[in-house]
Design a protein that fits this description.
- The chain is built from 15 helices and 15 strands.
- The protein is α/β, with parallel strands linked by helices and 468 residues long.
- The protein has three domains: 257 residues, HUPs (Rossmann fold), CATH 3.40.50.620; 100 residues, Four Helix Bundle (Hemerythrin (Met), subunit A); 47 residues.
- α2 packs across α3 and α12 packs antiparallel against α13.
- The longest helix has 27 residues.
- The structure holds adenosine monophosphate and zinc ion.
- The site of zinc ion has 3 residues, from loops.
Length: 468
């Protein structure tokens, strides 16, 4: 597997810290209103990366935070006359609903900044003790000049940046020793949420939260850190500075960044007001269409949102679903008996699409080319599996299609079929229980299915079921 690493600006062979395991951190959204489809891009592309690595047999520890204390949240709370906590809790819940709709696998942990304040105070204290941070009137700053590696991720000319910043004064930050120094802790203003600390009653800066949550849930050194490309500087640069200086070891081995989702070739963002929320889109399309749209471009290429591309994505998804439905029908109603020799060769060829798909994904998560392989498979299935085919062949080809679309997180079977698959799995479990003479479990499964309106019939041809 090759990954383009922003830190080295090259595609590198991926080597995990521990064989078979990946520790991955993805910067999550600030929860002050509904997420827009730009925010959905990192969620979808890195979820697909995770699913692919799981398909390759890795255990993936996937941590993605919610930023639930921030100026924008406080402003939204003041505008509505409610607490900041009410705003962040409300939109965190809404975000999780959107994520479910987009079929994002639940993260191993979704930490919240406000629940991790102790860890942040501890890391800030370590940075002060080691001489990397200083306090001025209750505000703590990171001293960028003390870190010889500062700038290693963004490859910026820091002297140039410093002179560019010379005239820039952010209110409340006049006491910085250097323009590139950034806030680790700031005192509260009237009406803001705050926590006690050795320096002031206040709240953490944004960057420290990710350093602390990555450390707590994944360890001092992690395999992959990911997020949108706008986060490279200063957010990720600052995370590296904090983590490396506090922990004394490298922070992340690979940095992955998705390009922007644009609209009329401008970044979609809340501040520009040129955005659609995931909720808006869900009213017009199944969110699987949004997912396919996102995966139809390479994650490092800008992607322009348009109605035409969404319609094209819808047509593409329909094409896959139609093929899946046809294969499902044939796998139930096709010819009985074993595959012929010719069919066995077709089934083998179908399996070959998995290797082709993997080859594309192994090249830096190239979902666009991997999707093309899925369409090749659809064409293959449509021509090679026909009315006269055996059920066994239809099922074999369907299994490959479901496996590949599953890695992309696309649900292609009609809801009913997914229910049917659950029932089939329970029936199989019951058969196994009966074989093992575990009749109690077998009866329990029969009753469980009956309570769902499914009656089992033990016939000479095996177990059948019908709705009652
Ligand atoms: P934010 O809530 O602004 O911190 O963003 C959460 C995540 O969404 C970050 O990884 C951002 O880089 C990413 N993001 C925000 N806007 C876009 C966009 N238009 N296209 C792609 N990613 C974005
Ligand atoms: Zn972050």
């Amino acid at each position: 597997m090759k990954i383009f690493n922003t830190a080295t600006m090259t595609k590198e062979e991926f080597k995990p810290i521990e064989p078979g395991r990946i520790r991955m951190y993805v910067c999550g959204p600030t929860v002050y209103n509904l997420i827009h489809i730009g925010n959905a891009r990192p969620m979808i592309v890195f979820d697909t990366f995770r699913r692919y690595m799981e398909h390759k047999g890795y255990r993936v520890d996937y941590v993605s935070n919610f930023t639930d204390v921030d100026d924008k949240i406080i402003k939204a709370a003041n505008d509505e006359g409610v607490s900041a906590q009410e705003i962040s809790e409300r939109y965190m819940k809404e975000c999780l609903k959107d994520m479910e709709g987009m079929n994002i696998e639940p993260a191993t942990v979704n930490p919240q900044a406000t629940q991790e304040i102790d860890g942040m105070i501890e890391m800030i204290q370590t940075l002060i003790d080691k001489g990397y941070a200083y306090e001025k009137n209750g505000t703590v700053y990171f001293s960028t000049r003390k870190d010889p590696d500062y700038g290693c991720l963004s490859h910026k000319d820091l002297d140039n940046l410093r002179s560019g910043f010379r005239d820039l004064k952010v209110s409340g930050e006049e006491e910085k020793e250097d323009q590139l120094d950034f806030v680790l802790w700031k005192p509260k203003k009237e009406g803001e949420p705050s926590w006690p600390s050795p320096w002031s009653d206040g709240r953490p800066g944004w960057h420290i939260e990710c350093s602390v949550m990555a450390k707590r849930y994944l360890g001092d050194t992690i395999d992959i850190h990911a997020g949108g490309e706008d986060l490279v500087f200063p957010h990720h640069e600052n995370e590296i500075a904090q983590s490396c200086c506090a922990n004394g070891v490298p922070f992340a081995h690979y940095w992955m960044h998705n390009a922007f989702l644009n609209i009329n070739n401008k970044k979609m963002s809340k501040s520009l007001g040129n955005f659609f929320t995931v909720r808006d889109i869900s009213k017009k399309y199944d969110l699987q269409v949004l997912r396919l749209f996102m995966l139809s471009a390479h994650y490092r290429s800008p992607l322009n949102f348009s109605d035409e591309l969404m319609e094209a994505a819808k047509a593409s998804l329909d094409r896959i679903k139609t093929a899946a439905a046809h294969l499902t029908d044939l796998s139930e109603a096709g010819a009985e008996g074993q595959m012929t020799e010719t069919e066995q060769a077709i089934a083998e060829e179908a399996k070959g699409f998995i290797a082709k798909f993997d080859e594309k994904m192994d090249d830096d998560n190239n979902t666009a080319d991997a999707l093309s392989v899925v369409f090749d498979l659809v064409r293959f299935a449509n021509t090679k599996v026909t009315e006269g085919s055996t059920r066994a062949l239809a099922k074999a080809v369907l299994d490959v299609l479901v496996e590949l679309t599953g890695i992309l997180g696309l649900k292609v079977l009609p809801e009913k079929e997914e229910l049917d698959l659950d029932i089939e799995a329970l029936i199989e479990e019951r058969q196994a229980a009966r074989k093992a003479k575990n009749f109690a479990r077998a009866d329990q499964i029969r009753d469980e299915l009956l309570s769902k309106g499914i009656q089992l019939l033990d016939t000479r041809e095996g177990v059948k079921w019908k709705r009652v």
